[in-house]
Structure formats: structure tokens, C-alpha cells
């Protein structure tokens, strides 16, 4: 997922609206009640500017889509998909600016007031230094790498290109990540999911192998079949390689165990006595104990 490939240190890059400071203040007043990385970056920006935040009324968090609540009016903050679902009006000038920001691979939070989008806050994250190398290693191992993200298609495409991923699923809600895993499993594929957030827990549980980063949330760590202590994506490939070598060693040991016992059990039982070969009982007992 996107959050696993990036550093998770999102920062506000653009604020679009008639009064950017007021827009940021209102957005941060709502987002301070959310734990989403985008919300955190918006609140951090408001704190840096020294803005005094307010207490919203009727606050509601919309999982994977945004938040809403009342301040000087009814505010809805979230993705473009949320705006469409709630039939919120999007002015042409803001839509044009959104297209421009999307082309830069930025993630956008739309701020709507009383049923009309009043502005946009754009945030951007940086790709982890080892992400491209980790993806390349996985592909060299013959694995199919798919990115699943809640971001819009343009942002997803920009991130996928940076890390070397050809296949991605964009605008996937938290509850739909499980369905995406199941779709891949229907293709008779063994699916490993790498995640670190609260929203990843169901998908980690649904996958054949859930790989959680140690720096992730407690829920993700508890759900994962494998927990990578270091926040290093290259350890994903190492874990898969280690598991393959371990399984190979298990099969090798089983082969020699069966071969050894197939030969020596009949000998210990005296099958060669007719031709004058008999194993000392003490040696036979010792051989079987090996």
C-alpha cells in the first residue's frame, strides 16, 4: 500500500481557496480529531502558523474517506470520491487547480462548506529510500507486485512509477482492501499483504501471509503473520527468501529421514540374516535413535 512505500511524513504543499489561512484553521479544527496521516499534516501546518483551533460539533469520521462536522457551517473534508458520493458542488476553477495538483502526484483534501467545495489542501509524501530497491528485488524473485491504495488514480500512478510498480488499485476503501485480496486469491495466487496501519488489519488477516512493519500500529502488528522489526522494506524480500530456504531445508531433512529409515529399519529387523549379515542389537538401537 502507499503508506508502506512512503516515509509517512506528509507535509502541506498547497492551500487553494479565497482565504487560505481561514481554510487551514477550519480544516485543522476538524482534522485534529482524526488519526489519519493527512489529518496530522494539516494540524501540524496550522500549529506551525500558530493558529488557534476550534472545537467542532457533530464530528464524524468517515473511514478512509474523510471527516465532517459543524463550525460556522457544515464542513466536509475528504477525497474527491467523497465529494461525488455526497453530491457536493465542485466549482470549475477549483476542479482545474485540482487537476494540476494531481498531475504532480499530490494527495488532495477537498474542503466543502454547506454543500459546496470552498478549497483544497494538497499534501505530499516522500518515497522511502529503499522502496524502489525492495520492489525491484521482489520482481527479480518472480513475484507479482501490486499496490493497493486509497489515493486517487493519478497520485497512485505517480507513486507506482517512482517505485517501479506496474499494477495498482486506486481509490480502494479500507473495507474493500479485503475484497482486492480475495480477487487475487481467486486467481489461485498465494497473496502476501504488507501493511502497517489500522486500516490494513483486515487485509493482513485475509491474505495468505500478512507482513506487518514493526513501526506500524499495534493492530497491524498483532494481525500480521510476520512482523519486520526494522522499518526496512528490503526485509520483505529477505523474509520471503528465508522462508523458501527454510522450507527447502525441511523437505531435504524429510527426504534423508525417509531414505535413512527405509534402508536401516529392514536391516535392523534382520532382513539380511539369511545371507549372513546381522546387525548387533545395540548398534541397531543406536541407528534408530539417530
From TrEMBL:
GO cellular component, one term: plasma membrane
InterPro entries given in the database record: ATPase_P-typ_cyto_dom_N (IPR023299), HAD-like_sf (IPR036412), HAD_sf (IPR023214), P_typ_ATPase (IPR001757)
Molecular function terms from GO: ATP binding; ATP hydrolysis activity; copper ion binding; P-type divalent copper transporter activity
Signal peptide positions (record): none
BP-aspect Gene Ontology terms: copper ion homeostasis
Membrane topology label: Multi-pass membrane protein
Major location (coarse): membrane
TM ranges: 254-277
Cellular compartments annotated: Cell membrane
Pfam families: Hydrolase
Keyword Membrane: yes
Alphabetic keyword roster: ATP-binding, Cell membrane, Ion transport, Membrane, Metal-binding, Nucleotide-binding, Translocase, Transmembrane, Transmembrane helix, Transport
Entry-linked NCBIfam families: ATPase_P-type (TIGR01494)
Protein family: Belongs to the cation transport ATPase (P-type) (TC 3.A.3) family. Type IB subfamily.
Protein name stated in the entry: HMA domain-containing protein
Organism: marine sediment metagenome
Organismal lineage: unclassified sequences, metagenomes, ecological metagenomes
Amino acid at each position: 500500500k502507499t503508506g508502506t512505500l512512503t516515509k509517512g511524513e506528509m507535509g502541506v504543499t498547497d492551500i487553494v481557496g479565497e482565504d487560505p489561512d481561514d481554510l487551514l484553521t477550519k480544516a485543522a479544527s476538524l482534522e485534529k480529531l482524526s488519526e489519519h496521516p493527512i489529518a496530522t499534516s494539516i494540524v501540524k501546518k496550522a500549529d506551525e502558523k500558530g493558529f488557534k483551533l476550534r472545537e467542532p460539533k457533530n464530528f464524524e469520521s468517515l473511514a478512509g474517506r474523510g471527516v465532517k462536522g459543524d463550525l460556522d457551517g457544515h464542513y466536509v473534508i475528504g477525497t474527491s470520491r467523497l465529494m461525488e458520493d455526497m453530491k457536493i458542488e465542485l466549482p470549475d476553477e477549483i476542479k482545474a487547480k485540482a487537476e494540476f495538483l494531481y498531475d504532480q502526484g499530490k494527495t488532495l483534501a477537498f474542503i466543502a462548506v454547506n454543500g459546496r467545495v470552498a478549497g483544497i489542501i494538497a499534501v505530499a509524501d516522500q518515497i522511502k529510500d529503499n522502496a524502489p530497491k525492495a520492489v525491484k528485488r521482489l520482481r527479480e524473485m518472480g513475484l507479482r507486485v501490486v499496490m493497493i491504495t486509497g489515493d486517487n488514480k493519478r497520485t497512485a500512478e505517480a507513486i507506482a512509477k517512482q517505485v517501479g510498480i506496474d499494477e495498482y488499485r486506486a481509490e480502494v476503501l479500507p473495507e474493500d482492501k479485503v475484497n482486492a485480496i480475495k480477487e487475487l486469491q481467486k486467481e489461485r495466487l498465494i497473496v502476501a499483504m504488507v501493511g502497517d496501519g489500522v486500516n490494513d488489519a483486515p487485509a493482513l488477516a485475509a491474505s495468505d501471509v500478512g507482513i506487518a512493519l514493526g513501526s506500524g500500529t499495534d493492530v497491524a502488528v498483532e494481525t500480521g503473520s510476520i512482523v519486520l522489526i526494522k522499518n526496512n522494506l528490503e526485509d520483505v524480500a529477505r523474509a520471503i527468501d528465508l522462508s523458501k530456504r527454510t522450507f527447502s531445508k525441511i523437505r531435504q531433512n524429510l527426504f534423508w529421514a525417509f531414505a535413512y529409515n527405509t534402508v536401516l529399519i529392514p536391516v535392523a529387523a534382520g532382513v539380511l540374516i539369511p545371507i549372513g549379515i546381522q546387525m548387533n542389537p545395540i548398534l541397531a538401537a543406536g541407528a534408530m535413535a539417530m
